């Protein structure tokens, strides 16, 4: 059969498929694959938008959690390992006189990168293996999450009892709670946290002064085994031996933090937008209103939606201001607490020697409580003595390094 007839028949058959009114659409089968692809893309985009909206909504419902300070340094052991390697590298660089200036600069840059959080984790995992994560890194993380959850949950529950509007599950609380409400709720929540975290503070005090690498060979002891052994050794009285300073830090620190944060976030925000938008003329108000009013009706108020960047800006200012105000109180108490922990470690060692030497004699019931009380006096005397040696006042000595510790 001639090829021309076949081409004509095929052309007429194809035209019958696309017959219709312009614009001509291909048959349903031709659209099946693109439609499925578009549906999958739309579903993915909708899912991402939903997750992003939930994350943003959660942050705005509970933004204060983003500014909490961690109670325990989960990289403490990694820093010990990094410090040991840094000293070895410094000795090697000092003894190497063949390296160029560029080589020394690259080594210093590499050492700085190893000092970051990813670098610390990589270094300690390479040296100790993956077992260091559940033994040394994961326990402090779990402790921080648990203590933070107790603090924030207690704060919300207490604030809801003191201020009824705060107990409602809304994005914005209006009228906002007064500073006396947030201060009281923060104080009580911090007090609860100090009681719950007392064993954690006792373990941290002893663990920071413990030889981290002693044990079987070069294998470090896990925090789990060390914590269980130390709690059995010091008992309940040892757990609460340094609780007075922890109570001051947690109760007043949380009170100052929450009251400052909530005041700047709520009262400061509402006062600013009231001051800013109340001074605008009528034309600017009509432009900024959600809907331009069709008539000048004085009985119908004009609703203006504030700029979307103002509220996040006040959230950031609230977090910075609350952290700074809290650090003003916590910084000197932290120095005193470190000195007190040193004295408690020495006191535990002396107590253990006395118990071993006088096993046949009855123990005095209030002897240890009296010793812990005198430990506070010894701590304060030690702080004033060191301040006098450096020819500084006690307050000035306690606030040394304040700006660096606050900014980092």
Overall outline: globular
What is the CATH level 1 assignment of the domain at 129-289 and 304-357 and 366-407? Mainly Alpha
Structural class: mainly alpha
- The DSSP helix count reads 15
**Do you know the CATH topology of the domain at 129-289 and 304-357 and 366-407?**
Mitochondrial carrier fold
Give the uncertain stretches in residue-range form.
1-5, 13-26, 28-33, 55-61, 209-213, 291-295
Largest sheet: none
SSE pattern, N- to C-terminal: HHHHHHHHHHHHHHH
User: What oligomeric assembly is this protein in?
Assistant: single chain
What is the CA-based Rg, rounded?
33 Å
Task: Please identify, by name, the CATH architecture of the domain at 129-289 and 304-357 and 366-407.
Answer: Alpha/alpha barrel
Tell me the total number of β-strands.
0
Q: How helical, in percent, are the residues?
A: over 70%
Mean pLDDT: 73
The termini sit apart by 87 Å
Beta-strand share of residues:
under 5%
Describe this structure in words.
The longest helix has 48 residues, at 310-357. The protein has helices at residues 3-17, 28-61, 76-95, 101-114, 117-128, 132-162, 179-196, 198-208, 223-239, 243-278, 282-288, 310-357, 367-389, 394-398, 402-407. The N and C termini lie far apart (87 Å). The protein is 73% helix and 0% strand. It is globular, with a radius of gyration of 33 Å. Helix 3 crosses helix 5 (117-128). The protein has a domain at 129-289 and 304-357 and 366-407: Mitochondrial carrier fold (Alpha/alpha barrel), CATH 1.50.40.
């Amino acid at each position: 059969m001639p090829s021309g007839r076949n081409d004509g028949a095929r052309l007429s058959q194809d035209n019958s498929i696309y017959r219709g009114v312009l614009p001509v659409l291909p048959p349903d089968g031709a659209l099946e694959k693109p439609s499925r692809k578009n549906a999958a893309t739309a579903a993915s985009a909708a899912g991402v938008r939903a997750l992003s909206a939930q994350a943003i909504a959660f942050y705005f419902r509970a933004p204060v959690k983003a500014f909490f300070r961690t109670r325990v340094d989960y990289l403490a052991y990694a820093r010990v390992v990094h410090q040991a390697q840094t000293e070895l590298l410094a000795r090697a660089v000092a003894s190497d006189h063949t390296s160029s200036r560029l080589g020394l600069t690259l080594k210093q840059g590499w050492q700085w990168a190893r000092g970051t959080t990813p670098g610390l984790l990589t270094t300690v995992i390479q040296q100790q293996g993956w077992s260091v994560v559940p033994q040394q890194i994961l326990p402090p993380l779990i402790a921080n999450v648990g203590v933070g959850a107790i603090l924030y949950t207690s704060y919300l529950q207490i604030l809801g009892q003191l201020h009824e509007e705060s107990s409602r599950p809304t994005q914005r609380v209006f009228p906002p709670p007064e500073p006396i409400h947030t201060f009281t709720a923060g104080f009580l929540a911090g007090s609860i946290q100090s009681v719950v975290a007392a064993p954690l503070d006792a373990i941290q005090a002893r663990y920071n002064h413990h030889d981290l690498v002693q044990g079987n060979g070069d294998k470090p002891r896990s925090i789990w085994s060390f914590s269980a052994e130390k709690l059995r050794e010091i008992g309940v009285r040892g757990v609460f031996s340094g609780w007075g300073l922890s109570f001051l830090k947690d109760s007043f620190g949380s009170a100052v933090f929450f009251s400052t944060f909530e005041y700047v976030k709520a009262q400061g925000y509402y006062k600013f937008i009231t001051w800013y938008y109340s001074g605008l003329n009528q034309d600017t108000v009509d432009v900024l209103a959600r809907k331009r009013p069709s008539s000048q009706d004085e009985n119908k108020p004009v609703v203006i939606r504030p700029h979307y960047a103002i509220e996040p800006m006040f959230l950031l200012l609230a977090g910075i201001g609350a952290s700074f105000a809290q650090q003003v109180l916590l910084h000197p108490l932290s120095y005193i607490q470190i000195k007190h922990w040193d004295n408690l470690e020495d006191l535990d060692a002396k107590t253990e020697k006395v118990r071993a030497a006088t096993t046949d004699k009855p123990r005095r019931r209030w002897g240890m409580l009296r010793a812990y009380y005198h430990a506070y006096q010894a701590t304060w005397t030690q702080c004033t003595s060191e301040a006098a040696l450096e020819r500084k006042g006690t307050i000035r000595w306690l606030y040394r390094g304040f700006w660096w510790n606050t900014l980092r």
